[in-house]
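Q: Structure tokens for this one, please.
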Amino acid sequence: MRSKNPYIQESVKFSLTVLSCGKYELECYVFEQKLNAPTLFVKDLETGYYNYVGDFFRFNWHEKDITEDLIPTIDEVVERNWGDEVLVSVLLTAIIDPHKTYFTSEKNLTEGIKMAVKDDRMNLDTLVFRQIATKWLNFLNSLAAST
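A: Here is the predicted structure, written as tokens:
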């Protein structure tokens, strides 16, 4: 039996699609209220905690953003294997380096990375970030195709 997502109120009606991504489970919610955008929660199956990557996608969920900006940026950073890139979302900033991606709400990115290194909910492998982005994109495309 699935454990209840503590961030979703009992009274809210939604449909839920669960996707597997290695040690992570993607909970893709579509709420019945028309104004709500599809919402992603990413749960670490080993710890049971939700990763901040879901918060990053909360306002960066448009297919075009993922296709034209996010995935090419990840690919570029991984391919050159040095340096990092910063992508800003409404809630969080993603600092993408070739091996790890860090999520922070700190304006001082150096401090944000220090915090994210200490908290597994605030970082994940960059290639896993790409896989999650791709699965989220596929989910959004399937929603668009069904409407």
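A few notes: The chain has a mean pLDDT of 91. The CA atoms of residues 32 and 144 lie 15 Å apart.
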